[in-house]
Design a protein that fits this description.
heterodimer, A: alpha+beta, OB fold (Dihydrolipoamide Acetyltransferase, E2P), five-stranded mixed β-barrel, 2 helices, 26% helix, elongated, B: alpha+beta, Four Helix Bundle (Hemerythrin (Met), subunit A), six-stranded antiparallel beta sheet, four-stranded antiparallel beta sheet, 11 strands, 62% helix
C-alpha cells in the first residue's frame, strides 16, 4: 500500500470506530431508558424490578376510584386481572370509571405508584393491546 | 356549483404543475423555455390559489354541503375560527400544506430572474413535488366531497381545544417552515442535474433557507406555548412524538444553515451541504407521514387511515431514493477544495454538524424504535424524557463549549490556538463565579444543571463581550450569529433554572379556606357554575398572595362543551417576569373540598423569548444587505 492510501485507510478506520462507539453509546442509553408497556394480565407473567419505570394500560374498574385528599387510588383492569394504582394529583379530564387509561410509574409491593396518568384527547381512545368495546 | 369549480381548479392545477415538472426536467435551458416554465408555473399557481381561496370562502359562508366543512365548522363560530377550522383536521390541513408549498415556489418564481441557470430545473422539481401531494390530496383525502342533496343546517363543532388564537396560527406557521425547505432541496437537486460545478446554488438559497428556518422556529415555539396554557400540559416540552418530528427538521435545518455558511464562504463542505438539504426536506416529509398516518399515538394524530400512511411513505421513499441516487451519480461533480484547517471557523462548524447529526439520529431512534421493537418482539414500549435528556444534555453542553471557543476562530485560517485570551478568561471567570454562587444559593448537587448553566453563561458573556468590542472598537460583528448564539445561551440558562426551581403540588382545599404552598398563600374565595353559548363551566375563584407582596386573583375553569360532551380544563396563569403561577382545578371530594394543582414555573417565558430571539436573528439576516454572511 502506498502512503496516501494507508493514510486514507487510517482515517476511514478512525471515523468508523468513532461512529460505532457513538451509536453503541446511544443504543445503550436507549435500552436503559425504555418504558415497557403491560396490561394487567401480561404483568402476571413477568417479573419487574421495583425501580424499573413501566407503563400499564387498561380500564379503570367501576366503583374502584377512591380519593384521600389529593391522593387518588383506583384499579386498572383488563377484566381478567387487575392492579391497584395510587396517584397524587389531578387526573386528566377524560379519566373516568369504565374507560381506558394508561399510567406511567413503578410497582412496589403489588401496588402501582403512578407518576403520570395519561388519557388521550380523544373520546374513543383505547389503550393498546386491549380488544374491549368502549361503550360510553 | 362553486364547490365543483374549486375542485376542478385544483385538478386543473395538478395537470399544469405536472406539465411544468416534466417539461422542465426534460428540456435544455434556453431563454425561451425558462420563460415558458416560469409563466406556466404562475398560471398553475393561480389555479391552485383560486381553488384554495374559494375553499376558504366556502368555509366563511358556511357551505355545509361540503362534507369536510360540515364536519369541522359551525355556523356559530366567529369568522376567524371558521377559516382556521380548515386546518383543524386532515384533509384541510393537507390542502393548506400544498398551497404553502406552491406559494414558496411562486415567490421564488417572482423574485429570481429567469436568467438564473438553476431556476427552470428548480421550478420543475417543486412542481413535481406539488403534483405528488395534490394526487395524495385528491385520491386519498379529498376535501371537496359533498353531502347531497341535504346539507346539515349548522355543521358540527370544531374541537374546543382547537378554538384558540395560538392554534389558529401555529399550524400555518409550522407548515410554512416545513415546506419552505423545498427551495434549498429543489435548488440542490437542480444543481446536481445541471452538472455545472460553478453554479452557486448555496448563495441562491441562503435567505430562503433562513426564512423557512424562522417560520419553523416560531411555529414550534407557538406549539409549545399552546400546549402549556391551553392543553394544560404545564410545561414547555414533552418529547411527544409530534414534537419530536418537528424538532428533527429544525435540528437538520440548523445544521444545514451552518454548513451552508461554509459552502458559501469557501466552497468547502459542499457534498455535506447538499446531503443536509436533502435530509431537512425528507425529515419534513417524514413529519407529515408520522402525523398523518396515525402510526404513533399523539394528541396530533388525526384519522388513522392506513391507505394515507402507505401513500405518503411510498412518496417519501421515491423522493429520497431519487435524490440520493442523483446525489451519488453526480458526486464527482463537486471538486474537493482543499482540506479544512484545524481551528479554523470551518473546522468548528464541521464539529457542530457532527453534534447535530448525532442529535437527529437519537431523536429518530426514539421515535421509530417503539415501532420496530413492537414489530420484532410484540411488546409495546415507549421512549420518554430520560432517554432524550441522557443524549441532549451532554451533547448540547459539549457543542456549546466548542461554540464558545469558535468565537475567536477565523475563516480558512488556523489561528495559533491560544486558550487564554482576554475575552475567554473574562467569560470563564464570570460564568464560573456565577455558577458557584448559584450552587451555594440553591444548594443543588445536580451536576447536569450546573454544567448547563455554566455553558449557557460562557456563551452569553462571550457574545456580550463581542458586541461590546464591536460597539467600542468598531470591530466587525456578525449580528445574526451574535443574536442567535446569545439566544442559545439564554435558552440553556432558562431551561436549567426552569428544571431546577419549578415545583408543583396538588392541594386539597375547601371554600373560604387558606392553604400555604411555598411562599404562596392561596385563598379559595368561591366556586360557581356559569353558562356560555356552547358550554357550561365550573369556575373557581382564588386569591393568591406571594412573598413579594403581589396579590392577585386566579380563576381556573372546567368546561363541558354541549356539542361533543367534551370536558376541558382551562388553566389560570399569573405571569410575572421570573415565574408563572399556574392553577388548574380537579374534582370535588366527598368532604366538599376541591383538588387544585399549583405549579410554579420559573423562567418559562424566557424559554419562549429565547426561541423568539433566535427567530429574530434570522429576520435580521434576511433583511441585512450583506450578500453572504451567516
Amino acid at each position: 500500500m502506498n502512503p496516501t492510501r494507508k493514510k486514507r485507510l487510517y482515517r476511514v478506520l478512525v471515523v468508523f470506530l468513532f461512529s460505532i462507539s457513538g451509536v453503541s453509546l446511544i443504543l445503550y442509553s436507549l435500552n436503559s431508558n425504555l418504558d415497557y408497556f403491560f396490561t394487567p394480565t401480561e404483568l402476571k407473567s413477568v417479573n419487574i424490578p421495583s425501580e424499573k419505570r413501566i407503563k400499564i394500560g387498561g380500564m379503570v374498574l367501576e366503583d374502584s376510584v377512591k380519593r384521600y385528599g389529593p391522593e387518588i387510588s383506583f384499579i386498572i383492569s383488563d377484566y381478567e386481572n387487575s392492579i391497584n394504582v395510587v396517584f397524587e394529583g389531578i387526573v386528566p379530564d377524560l379519566f373516568k370509571e369504565g374507560s381506558g387509561v394508561v399510567a406511567l410509574g413503578f410497582i412496589k409491593n403489588e401496588i402501582f405508584y403512578a407518576e403520570e396518568v395519561l388519557a388521550k384527547h380523544d373520546e374513543n381512545y383505547m389503550p393498546p393491546n386491549l380488544d374491549l368495546k368502549n361503550d360510553n | 356549483m362553486i364547490i365543483e369549480i374549486s375542485h376542478f381548479l385544483s385538478i386543473l392545477s395538478t395537470g399544469l404543475f405536472f406539465l411544468v415538472g416534466s417539461f422542465a426536467l426534460t428540456t435544455n435551458n434556453t431563454p425561451y423555455t425558462s420563460n415558458l416554465i416560469s409563466r406556466t408555473y404562475s398560471h398553475a399557481f393561480l389555479f391552485l390559489s383560486s381553488s384554495f381561496l374559494i375553499y376558504i370562502w366556502l368555509a366563511i359562508t358556511d357551505n355545509f354541503s361540503v362534507q369536510y366543512i360540515a364536519n369541522h365548522s359551525n355556523s356559530a363560530l366567529p369568522t376567524f375560527y371558521k377559516i382556521s377550522s380548515i386546518w383543524s383536521a386532515h384533509e384541510g390541513s393537507m390542502f393548506l400544506w400544498i398551497f404553502f408549498l406552491a406559494l414558496w415556489g411562486f415567490i421564488f418564481n417572482i423574485k429570481i430572474k429567469n436568467a438564473e441557470i438553476l431556476k427552470p430545473k428548480t421550478m420543475g422539481i417543486i412542481s413535481l413535488i406539488i403534483v405528488g401531494f395534490l394526487l395524495f390530496l385528491l385520491i386519498t383525502s379529498n376535501p371537496f366531497i359533498t353531502i347531497l342533496p341535504i346539507a346539515p343546517l349548522n355543521g358540527a363543532d370544531i374541537n374546543p381545544v382547537l378554538q384558540d388564537p395560538a392554534l389558529a396560527i401555529h399550524p400555518p406557521t409550522l407548515y410554512l417552515g416545513y415546506v419552505g425547505f423545498v427551495i434549498p432541496f429543489a435548488c440542490s437537486l437542480a444543481f446536481l442535474i445541471n452538472g455545472d460545478p460553478d453554479a452557486k446554488w448555496e448563495k441562491l438559497v441562503n435567505k430562503w433557507s433562513v426564512s423557512a428556518w424562522v417560520f419553523l422556529t416560531v411555529g414550534i415555539t407557538l406549539g409549545s406555548w399552546w400546549a402549556y396554557y391551553e392543553l394544560g400540559w404545564g410545561g414547555y416540552w414533552f418529547w411527544d412524538p409530534v414534537e419530536n418530528v418537528a424538532l428533527m427538521p429544525w435540528l437538520a435545518a440548523t445544521a444545514f444553515l451552518h454548513s451552508l455558511s461554509v459552502s458559501i464562504k469557501s466552497s468547502q463542505l459542499r457534498t455535506w451541504t447538499i446531503l443536509l438539504s436533502i435530509t431537512v426536506f425528507s425529515l419534513s416529509l417524514f413529519g407529515a407521514f408520522i402525523v398523518r398516518s396515525g402510526i404513533i399515538d399523539s394528541v396530533h394524530s388525526f384519522a388513522n387511515d392506513p391507505q394515507r400512511g402507505l401513500y405518503l411513505l411510498a412518496f417519501i421513499a421515491v423522493i429520497i431514493a431519487a435524490s440520493l441516487s442523483l446525489f451519488v451519480s453526480r458526486l464527482s461533480l463537486i471538486k474537493p477544495s482543499g482540506n479544512i484547517k484545524t481551528f479554523s471557523k470551518q473546522s468548528f462548524i464541521s464539529i457542530n454538524n457532527i453534534f447535530f447529526v448525532t442529535l437527529i439520529f437519537s431523536v429518530m431512534l426514539g421515535v421509530t424504535y417503539p415501532l420496530i421493537y413492537e414489530y420484532l418482539y410484540d411488546q409495546k414500549i415507549s421512549v420518554g424524557a430520560p432517554f432524550y435528556n441522557a443524549i441532549f444534555i451532554p451533547i448540547v453542553i459539549l457543542a456549546s463549549i466548542f461554540l464558545f471557543f469558535s468565537v475567536d476562530s477565523k475563516w480558512s485560517r488556523s489561528i495559533d490556538f491560544r486558550i487564554f485570551t482576554k475575552p475567554i478568561v473574562l467569560s470563564l471567570f464570570f460564568a464560573l463565579t456565577s455558577t458557584f454562587a448559584i450552587y451555594f444559593i440553591f444548594k443543588t448537587n445536580n451536576i447536569a444543571i450546573l454544567l448547563t448553566i455554566f455553558t449557557g453563561l460562557i456563551v452569553i458573556i462571550r457574545y456580550l463581550i463581542e458586541v461590546w468590542t464591536a460597539l467600542v472598537y468598531k470591530k466587525y460583528l456578525n449580528v445574526f450569529s451574535a443574536i442567535a448564539h446569545f439566544a442559545l445561551g439564554l435558552l440553556l440558562v432558562s431551561i436549567s433554572f426552569n428544571s431546577l426551581l419549578s415545583t408543583e403540588r396538588a392541594l386539597n382545599i375547601k371554600i373560604n379556606e387558606f392553604e400555604e404552598y411555598k411562599d404562596l398563600t392561596i385563598y379559595f374565595k368561591d366556586i360557581r357554575v356559569r353558562k356560555d353559548s356552547n358550554y357550561d363551566a365550573i369556575k373557581a375563584e382564588f386569591n393568591i398572595k406571594d412573598k413579594y407582596g403581589n396579590n392577585f386573583d386566579l380563576s381556573p375553569e372546567k368546561r363541558r362543551y354541549f356539542t361533543r360532551g367534551q370536558i376541558t380544563t382551562e388553566t389560570a396563569i399569573y405571569i410575572s417576569p421570573l415565574r408563572d403561577i399556574y392553577l388548574t382545578i380537579g374534582d370535588q371530594l366527598e368532604d366538599g373540598s376541591w383538588i387544585v394543582n399549583v405549579q410554579i414555573n420559573f423562567l418559562i417565558r424566557w424559554i419562549w423569548f429565547s426561541a423568539c430571539l433566535m427567530a429574530f436573528a434570522g429576520i435580521v439576516l434576511i433583511f441585512s444587505n450583506r450578500k453572504s454572511n451567516i
